[in-house]
Amino acid sequence: MHFSAAVVLSSIFSLTNALPAPQSGSKAPAPGRLNVNYNFNKATLSSGSQDKAKAGPLSMIKASGPFTIKAYNSESPIHMMDINVSYNRFWVGNATNSTCPKDRPANPPQPCPVGNVTALLTTSTGGAKMDSGIFGGQAVYIGPRAQLRFNPPAVAIGRDVQRVVFALQPNPIPAPPGIAAFTFSGVGKASGYLACPVAPKGPWQVFADLGSIEDSWVPSGDVSDCIGFDALATNYTSALPAAYQYI
């Protein structure tokens, strides 16, 4: 490995500490894909007095979600760990980072979601977005250096992103019924993900496994440190979006 652990950790923690605190707390076979087009849709805040959230198996896979995701690689230290978002990136081994500002639009008044769960949706046109309540939504995308990312509130996505199709594929592996894979297509035969460590024991930043990632793009400076995995999706049910806005 090419870690300078002290420097890398210091850099990551300084970025994390600069943000508002979170409100709480061998590669698997490539799954199949749905043939749909790429697009971003808006997300709006659902009505409801309290957030009664729970995660459970999918009884039926729907293109719209919402769902949570876990890393699947049974021969790795990240197997079945949650994939969460923080600092506009996706991580294995980091907590979800979200906020619900006091000055949010209040006509009609809306309660704050719990905000400690990372949940996504896919659209019928092949896009993906965060399950957030902020007007305009927060789109999920693959950056020019293969990072799996989402846009900050009120910030447009650049033109240099990877144009891909996101989808849910039911039962991608021998698993209990109701499990799906969160996949992408549109860049060659790529469809899986990489978890690239920031330090030897994590956390790991999530990248799309495009097959042409350069060493300089990943935190350790060596793509061979990364772990291939599939992203398994499980249904997420709540009266409110999972978060007001992810940061």
Explained architecture:
This protein has 247 residues and is mostly beta strands. Helices cover 5% and strands 26% of the residues. It contains 1 helix and 15 strands. The strands form 4 sheets. Strands 1, 2, 3, 4, 10, 11, 12, 13 and 14 form a 9-stranded antiparallel β-sheet that branches. A two-stranded antiparallel ribbon has the order 5-15. Mean pLDDT is 75; it is low at 4-62.
User: How would you sum up the global shape?
Assistant: globular
Strand tally: 15
Residue share in β-strands: 25-35%
- Give the helix/strand class: mainly beta
End-to-end span in angstroms?
Answer: 30 Å
Succession of helices and strands: HEEEEEEEEEEEEEEE
The low-confidence runs, each spanning 5 or more residues with pLDDT under 50, are 4-62
Rg, rounded, reads 17 Å
Q: Bin the helical content.
A: under 10%
Counting copies of identical and different chains, the oligomeric state is single chain
Number of helices: 1
Overall pLDDT level: 75
Helices and strands in order:
Layout (H helix, E strand, L loop, with lengths): L4 H13 L36 E2 L11 E6 L10 E4 L2 E4 L5 E2 L20 E3 L5 E3 L9 E3 L5 E3 L14 E6 L9 E6 L7 E5 L6 E5 L18 E11 L7 E2 L1
Antiparallel strand pairs: 1-14, 2-14, 3-4, 4-13, 5-15, 6-7, 8-9, 10-11, 11-14, 12-13, 12-14
Brief descriptors of the model:
247 residues, mainly beta, nine-stranded antiparallel β-sheet, two-stranded antiparallel ribbon, 26% strand
